Amino acid sequence: MSRSKRKWDHIQYALQTGQKRLTGFDDLKFVNQSLPGSKLDSVKLETEIGELSLSSPIFINAMTGGGGERTYRINRELAIAARETRSAIAVGSQMAALKDPDERRSYEVVREMHPHGIILANLGSEATVVQARAAIDMIQADALQIHLNVVQELTMPEGDRDFEGALARIVEIQQSVGIPVVVKEVGFGIGAEAAALLYSSGIRYVDVGGYGGTNFAEIENKRRNRLLTFFEDWGIPTAASIIETKSASQELSVIASGGIQTSLDIVKALAAGADAAAMAGYLLKTLMENGTEELIKEINLVKKELAIIMTALGVHTIGELKSVPLVIAGETYHWLEQRGID
Ligand code: FNR
Fold first, then answer.
1. Is the pTM of this model over 0.95?
2. Which of 101, 121, 234, 256 could disulfide-link to 269, CB 3.0 to 4.6 Å?
3. Strand 88-90 relative to strand 119-124: parallel, antiparallel, unpaired?
4. Contact of 183 with 170, CB cutoff 8 Å
5. What separation in Å is there between the alpha carbon of 64 and the centre of ligand 1?
6. Residues with CB under 6 A from ligand 1
């Protein structure tokens, strides 16, 4: 199967399988503050995540690139939406463009459309230092995402079966590229063990890519009618993954992702310890069903709602959200209790 067919399949099946809202965010509840002492006009959404200064905590996460005209257009529109909403954006895996220069334009268009924005390059953990540098140069990236997707690979008959050496390669890349390296999952979640290994190896940015939104086991099974269905329920729900990752080290900068759809999901993610929040499947669906203008409106609405929720909670900055009271119920409570994480 050609790489370009695979990219298009991922988009089609991601739209078809949708997002199931199994992230665990429903288990996180805020405590109403009747005397918040806050003022909507004083709320600031600007934030810093490590070395990156963001105008709001919202990222458009890695989705696509390569694969011809259709993915070119999707990336172009996502980049326009990122520019108009002053959001950071990650491109999809650039391996395609490193192997075939004709594929470069669908990544380069992201920088063309969003010349002053924060843009993240993206490769898998099989990448070499030379490939990482080339991916960064292709789009003058401000940071590099390296995705980990073991369960997705195992679900694909032609997928990788050898995961040796991934951490060593990531460390080598992060020591040579000179910009932040964000290690991310793709919907199965990063847990405390992996986060601790990453932290002790010098990695400082993690995108949890938790379970409960886009489900790549389901997407890969649908593409081939194969029945590795056990992987469809496999993963660390996003809410638990944020708290697990942060428990490995408070010094890790954490991007929440996996099934994030609403302003309330984002505020809960930030209150649970994340520094920013990234959305993929939900924004893709909005773009494909309603177009670029609606996507821009939706992101702007989410930003407005973030400020309203922050006002209700009595905070004026994104950083202050980390200390608002949060009650954890249900499965997320039991998950964290059994894992010995407060
Ligand atoms: C993705 N995702 C992804 N991630 C990555 O690191 N490199 C990639 O090339 C892709 N490609 C891709 C294609 C499509 C169509 C989708 C929907 C997603 C994964 C994405 O960045 C994210 O981690 C997961 O989709 C979980 O987040 P959501 O979709 O539940 O918000």
1. yes
2. 256
3. parallel
4. yes
5. 8
6. 10-11, 14, 19, 61-64, 92-93, 122, 145, 147, 184, 186-187, 209, 213-214, 257-260, 279-282, 284
188 to 10, 29, 121, 203, 289: CA distances (angstroms): 16, 23, 21, 19, 26
**Centroid of ligand 1 to alpha carbon of 280 (angstroms):** 6
Look at residue 65 in the predicted model and tell me its pLDDT. 83
Q: Which of 214, 222, 279, 284 to mutate to test the pocket of ligand 1 (most atoms within 8 A of CB)?
A: 214
Q: Please give the number of the atom of ligand 1 that sits closest to the Cα of 213.
A: 30
Per-residue pLDDT for 6 more than 90? no
Both tokens assigned to 246: 């942060």
Residue nearest to atom 15 of ligand 1 (CA): 11
1 has pLDDT over 70: no
pLDDT tens digits for range 111-166: 999 999 999 999 999 999 999 999 999 999 999 999 999 999 999 988 999 999 99
Closest CA to 179 of 128, 143, 137: 143
**31 SS3 class:** coil
Residue 53, both tokens: 């200064």
Q: Pick the closest to residue 71 from 12, 16, 19 (CA basis).
A: 12
SS3 234: coil
| The residue type at 194 | A
* ipTM value for the complex: 0.99
Specify the residue for token string 């259709």: 70
